[in-house]
Write a structure and sequence with these properties.
The chain is of the alpha+beta class. The chain folds into two domains: 30 residues; 110 residues, Immunoglobulin-like (Sandwich), CATH 2.60.40.730. The protein is globular. Bound molecules: fe (ii) ion.
């Protein structure tokens, strides 16, 4: 094949694949809305756990896991959005839930309004005590975070 530089072609494909992988990886950590707004700029958290506002009660992830956690052994985290479950209606619903151990993303679950409940159980294992962060996004009320230390 004249005029076709196989080496150059493979190099270009390789660079494209790496670039695409990097973009996908970063994309999973940073979500931009259709309006171009970086959703992670404004993360809502419960300000006073003993005196939650109605919005905090309705959106902050409620997280439970077993008492005895052993290093490296899997356990389940039960997550529900809101003290009384957040609605899952076509015009108001939970879009996703993310779980981080430290700064590492462990899981991301996407929802559509057809999902009947904003709750999940996720398996996880940690090596040593660490802080678990659970983030969620309501299509109307933004991102909410609950952080909790897991002790092994
Ligand atoms: Fe909401």
């Amino acid at each position: 094949m004249q005029g076709f530089n196989r080496r150059k072609f493979l190099k270009t494909i390789g660079i494209s694949a790496v670039t695409a992988g990097l973009t996908t990886s970063l994309g999973s950590l940073r979500s931009f809305g259709a309006d171009g707004i970086d959703w992670y700029q404004n993360i809502n958290r419960v300000k006073d756990p003993l005196n939650k506002t109605p919005k905090e009660k309705g959106h902050a992830p409620v997280v439970r896991w077993p008492i005895n956690i052993k290093s490296g052994e899997p356990f389940n985290i039960d997550i529900q959005i809101g003290e009384s479950l957040h609605p899952m209606a076509p015009n108001h619903y939970i879009q996703w839930i993310e779980v981080y151990a430290g700064i590492e993303q462990v899981s991301r679950i996407e929802f559509s309004p057809l999902c009947p409940q904003a709750k999940v159980t996720i398996p996880i294992a940690v090596k040593g005590s660490s802080t678990l962060k659970i983030l969620t996004r309501c299509n109307l009320h933004g991102i909410w975070e609950t952080a909790k230390k897991v002790t092994v």
